[in-house]
Design goal:
Order of helices and strands: EHEHEEEHHHHHHEHEHEH
Strand content: 5-15%
Bound molecules: adenosine monophosphate, manganese (II) ion
Number of helices: 11
Distance between the termini: 24 Å
Largest sheet: 5 strands, mixed
Radius of gyration: 18 Å
Strand order of the largest sheet: 4-5-6-7-8
Oligomer: single chain
Length: 293
């Protein structure tokens, strides 16, 4: 008898979001409950450079009756800019992956102190101490936490405005940082049994030549997927990267990149379907899914 594959391209998979373990505002348990309530059928928590929330996310998914894939989002420096690589379905106990992530996180505190010094020069004092109450994980102070502090102090109306005016390249609170290498990030994920995916490709300020190099080098290092449907893509961008997925023979992923009920435009589970021409990354990860009991 034919058993239908439950992992079709129409599955409500949401394989990208953040908890208090990085720069989200909800605990992993609250995210699992929210994903379930929103109709998510396969979920992954993908905190920045950190897998400290994986056990909690997996256990909460089990309790909620939600299928789960391990996840993370690694910060990478490529062509002088920051690119994010999502890892899915890896063994969260893999020591090389854990060491690589710890190394990638290192330096965030010093960077944050430099960001605060830059902000002090334009009259915003005490930003390091001010950001700390927003930080859930002392190893993961991010620009998002500074943005929340500046909103709280009334410097800006919302976090997007903070990024535009203070935290992006050329602005007073921006500090260039060297993250992981592309090849290292892809290898850490792959060697731990997972699949590496280029996150929200439309967000990067790369020339067409640099973007081609990103996809080519990513594949050469063993990368296998790309986010086609994400909270950061317009419909036109989703179409563009569906074509890129076909061109580079990459698996397609889908994820909201949800951070917070009050900040994120796209909620968990409320994304367009993957185009039918795509091969979903979750088909290649069927044996890595942790099914609820
Ligand atoms: P970091 O890893 O400290 O450089 O912070 C990166 C995070 O900042 C991203 O993962 C987003 O959550 C957030 N971010 C980046 N750009 C923006 C933006 N324009 N508006 C709001 N949040 C942003
Ligand atoms: Mn983030
Ligand atoms: Mn990202
Ligand atoms: Mn993200």
């Amino acid at each position: 008898m034919h058993t239908p594959n439950p992992l079709t391209h129409l599955l409500n998979a949401d394989l990208h979001c953040h908890s208090t373990v990085s720069d989200g505002t909800l605990e992993p348990e609250a995210l699992a409950a929210r994903a379930k309530a929103n109709g998510v059928e396969l979920w992954a928590l993908t905190d920045h450079d950190e897998i400290g929330g994986q056990r909690r996310a997996r256990d909460a998914a089990q309790r909620a009756g939600l299928a789960y894939l391990s996840g993370c989002e690694i910060s990478v420096t490529f062509a002088g800019t920051t690119v994010h690589i999502v890892g899915l379905g890896f063994d969260a106990d893999d020591s090389a992956l854990r060491d690589g992530l710890a190394k990638t996180r290192g330096g965030r505190e010093e960077r944050a102190r430099e960001m605060a010094a830059g902000l002090a020069q334009v009259g915003i004092h005490g930003a390091f101490e001010g950001a700390l109450p927003f930080v859930g994980n002392p190893e993961l102070i991010s620009r998002t936490h500074f943005a929340r502090f500046l909103v709280e102090r009334g410097h800006c109306a919302d976090t997007s405005e903070v990024f535009r005016r203070y935290l992006t390249e050329g602005k007073p609170g921006f500090v260039p940082h060297r993250w992981a290498g592309l090849g290292d990030a892809v290898r850490w994920i792959t060697a731990a049994g997972g699949i590496a995916v280029i996150a929200h490709p439309a967000r990067y300020k790369l020339t067409p030549t640099e973007e081609y190099a990103l996809f080519s080098e990513f594949k050469a290092h063993g990368g296998r997927g790309v986010e086609v449907i994400t909270g950061s893509h317009s419909a036109a961008e989703a179409l563009k990267y569906a074509a890129t997925a076909l061109e580079f023979e990459l698996l397609a992923s889908r994820g909201s990149d949800f951070h917070s009920p009050s900040e994120s435009r796209i909620d968990l589970g409320s994304l367009p379907d993957l185009p039918a021409s795509m091969t979903p990354v979750w088909q290649a990860l069927a044996d890595r899914v942790q099914w609820p009991a």
